[in-house]
TrEMBL record:
The keyword Lipoprotein applies. It comes from Streptomyces bobili. PANTHER family: D-METHIONINE-BINDING LIPOPROTEIN METQ, METHIONINE-BINDING LIPOPROTEIN METQ. The lineage of its organism: Bacteria, Bacillati, Actinomycetota, Actinomycetes, Kitasatosporales. This is Lipoprotein. It comes from the Bacteria.
Length: 280
């Protein structure tokens, strides 16, 4: 059994973006809002359940003690709270995101979260319960895509790379369906919160799903995806992150070293069999 404090978070209301709101009221009330500054206590890390919390739990159970690291893992099911909690000090670090997403989040929310070390890549994939190949997708098919800025653009780039659509010149990390210049199959797009995309598979013709949510839904990206992102020169590696100024926290340095150790690389390779790829 994993020794983690599990926090179930739904899609947050706009008020949850207020930086004064902690990830967990009881944590803030008990004084853990200073977790990032108090280097004498455990390092509390916010993480998505799969694979991030699983990787951290492997470190906690197998490597942390010998390295002199007291590690606590807190699970979150959304892509907002880990950053706001890191910003306000409710947690000391987080592990769930990539650079384009963090850049967009910091810009929109005035946060100051920075990467420490890149650990792995979760290839984004296109999945379907109704079709066995991208060629078989029917004219007018509905495709679910994540609705956050960076992952929606990433999803559209995946579709474009596989000939389903063409994006306008200059469409970057904020691309939306409005940036599609050619759509030969007349695909329709259903924009959903990223965590909801696996659950949409019975209601849509296909869905572009983030790797962590695919794995949580018992999909095997390396086998089940109709198409999958290439790992070559991929900018979407997931990293350990902290609030700016906490990069030299000795606990963070210990964790960064452990997360990029041969033991963690072997764990990723053995457990995820190509559905998660070590980036070091």
């Amino acid at each position: 059994m994993r020794n983690t404090a599990k926090i179930t978070t739904a899609v947050l209301a706009a008020g949850a973006l207020t930086l004064g709101l902690g990830a967990c009221g009881s944590d803030k009330d008990s004084g853990s809002g200073s977790a990032a500054a108090d280097t004498s206590g455990p390092l509390v890390v916010a993480a998505s359940p799969v694979p991030h919390a699983e990787i951290l739990t492997f470190v906690k159970d197998n490597l942390a003690k010998d390295a002199g690291l007291d590690l606590e893992v807190k699970e979150f099911t959304d892509y907002v709270t880990p950053n706001t909690a890191t910003e306000d000090g409710s947690v000391g670090a987080n592990y769930f995101q990539n650079q384009p997403y963090l850049d967009d989040f910091n810009k929109k929310n005035g946060t100051h979260v920075v990467p420490v070390v890149t650990v792995h890549l979760e290839p984004l994939g296109l999945y379907s319960h109704k079709f066995k190949s991208v060629e078989a997708l029917k004219n007018g098919a509905t495709v679910a895509v994540p609705n956050d800025t960076v992952n929606e653009a990433r999803a559209l780039k995946l579709l474009a790379a596989n000939g389903l659509i063409t994006l306008k010149d200059g469409a970057g990390n904020s691309a939306t369906p409005a940036d599609i210049s050619e759509n030969p199959k007349n695909l329709k797009f259903k924009e959903l919160e990223a965590a909801q995309t696996p659950r949409s598979l019975d209601d849509v013709d296909a869905a572009v799903i983030n790797g962590n949510y695919a794995i949580e839904a018992d999909l095997k990206p390396s086998k089940d995806a109709l198409v999958l992102e290439s790992a070559t020169d991929n900018p979407y590696g997931n990293f350990l992150a902290v609030k700016e100024g906490n990069e030299d926290d000795p606990r963070v340095k210990k964790l960064a070293k452990l997360l990029t150790s041969p033991e963690v690389k072997k764990f990723i390779e053995d457990k995820y069999a190509g559905s998660v790829i070590a980036s070091f």
